[in-house]
């Protein structure tokens, strides 16, 4: 089920998901000083990128800067090679900056890599795919003879570990126009998600379809009793409603921001979500690279096919 990924473009890259801050054994004061200096430098880096109007208008929201012992590591996606270099130039004038490791992924380079991966399919099935890339999200279009070729193209594009997700708009001959694709959504780990009635929980993990690297569901942790029930329990001296971990389909998301999200359902619509069952999901293998901005521990896969997840999460079965 899991497509084999091609090697990283930069195998020497320092993972953004590991703690790269150096430890100074036996000298807590030195550790605190390094942390303080890195925090101040991280602020200067953020301000420098924000103050560059051209960069702010295009790529600022799609990158992350981590600072360790005076070295800045840049991660994320930019619109092109020009802005990959621009981000680095913007930081050169910051006092105290000791170096920049630029791991930004430019869309034009990723586009070329994806097009190359699709080449064998085009030769085999005598078809032509048209690809676009926007901050790591790949859009596939074109015409093919059957649905299997469309799925093979989706999987081929997703083998690139720098792809954030694949939107498949390939048209199959003999079938009507494709229905509008679902919006590309990436909930932030730790952000608060609100139900229509005001109840909320925190995103713990995302569930990804490995065939296209897109988030199809998320797990949310929270106390989901209604306000009336909470007050009644407190008045009786009873314990608060225990925390629950539930699985919510992305189909129920109304919209997301970087700090919060809002659903189209109420917490009492229990037929539209499920309690989390660890036996229904698996963790990615060690070598699998998650799509930005996730770390491997943030991600789960559905066991079996994605269609089996549709059956697990009742909320996916939305009446059209």
What would you call the shape?
Answer: globular
Range of helix content: 25-40%
Q: What is the tally of beta strands?
A: 17
Query: What is the first-to-last residue Cα distance?
Result: 28 Å
β-sheet strand percentage? 25-35%
- List SSEs in N-to-C order: HHEEHEEHEEHEEEEEHEEEEEEH
What's the overall average pLDDT, rounded?
85
Q: Describe the biggest sheet?
A: 9 strands, mixed
| Uncertain regions spanning at least 5 consecutive residues | 6-11, 226-231, 314-320
Overview of this protein structure:
The protein has three domains: 28-102, Histidine-containing Protein, Chain: A (2-Layer Sandwich), CATH 3.30.1340; 107-172, GMP Synthetase, Chain A, domain 3, CATH 3.30.300; 192-316, no CATH class. Helix content is 28%, strand content 27%. The longest helix is centred in the first third of the chain and has 24 residues, at 28-51. With 320 residues, the protein is an alpha/beta fold. α4 packs antiparallel against α5 (147-158). The radius of gyration is 22 Å and the shape is globular. Strands 9, 10, 11, 12, 13, 14, 15, 16 and 17 form a nine-stranded mixed sheet that branches. Strands 1, 2, 3 and 4 form a four-stranded mixed sheet that branches. It has helices at 28-51, 53-58, 81-91, 107-125, 147-158, 227-235, 306-312, and strands at residues 63-68, 71-78, 99-102, 105-106, 128-134, 137-144, 165-168, 171-172, 192-194, 200-209, 214-222, 244-249, 253-256, 260-263, 274-275, 281-282, 299-302. The chain is built from seven helices and 17 strands.
């Amino acid at each position: 089920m899991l497509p084999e990924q091609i090697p990283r473009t930069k195998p020497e890259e320092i993972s953004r998901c590991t703690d790269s801050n150096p430890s100074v054994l036996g000298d807590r004061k030195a550790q605190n000083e390094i942390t303080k200096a890195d925090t101040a430098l991280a602020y200067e880096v953020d301000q420098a990128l924000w103050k560059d109007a051209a960069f702010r208008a295009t790529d600022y929201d799609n990158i992350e800067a981590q600072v360790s012992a005076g070295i800045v590591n840049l991660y994320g996606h930019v619109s092109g090679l020009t802005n990959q270099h621009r981000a680095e130039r913007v930081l050169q004038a910051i006092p105290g900056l000791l170096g920049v490791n630029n791991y930004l992924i430019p869309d034009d380079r990723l586009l070329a890599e994806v097009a190359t991966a699709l080449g064998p399919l085009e030769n085999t099935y005598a078809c032509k795919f048209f690809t676009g890339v926007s901050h790591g999200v790949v859009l596939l279009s074109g015409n093919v003879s059957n649905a299997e070729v469309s799925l093979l193209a989706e999987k081929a594009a997703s083998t690139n570990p720098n792809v954030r997700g694949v939107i498949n708009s390939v048209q199959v001959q003999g079938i009507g126009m494709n229905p509008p694709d679902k919006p590309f959504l990436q909930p932030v780990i730790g952000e608060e998600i609100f139900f229509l009635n005001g109840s909320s929980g925190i995103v713990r993990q995302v569930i990804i379809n490995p065939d296209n690297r897109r988030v199809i569901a998320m797990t949310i942790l929270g106390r989901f009793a209604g306000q009336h029930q909470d007050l009644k329990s407190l008045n009786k001296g009873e314990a608060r409603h225990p925390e629950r971990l539930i699985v919510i389909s992305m189909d129920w998301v109304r919209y997301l921001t970087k700090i919060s999200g809002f659903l189209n359902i109420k917490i009492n619509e229990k037929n539209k979500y499920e309690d989390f069952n660890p036996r229904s999901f698996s963790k990615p293998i060690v070598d699998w690279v998650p799509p930005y901005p996730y770390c491997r521990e943030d991600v789960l896969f559905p066991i079996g096919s994605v269609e089996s997840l549709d059956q697990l999460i009742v909320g996916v079965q939305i009446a059209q």
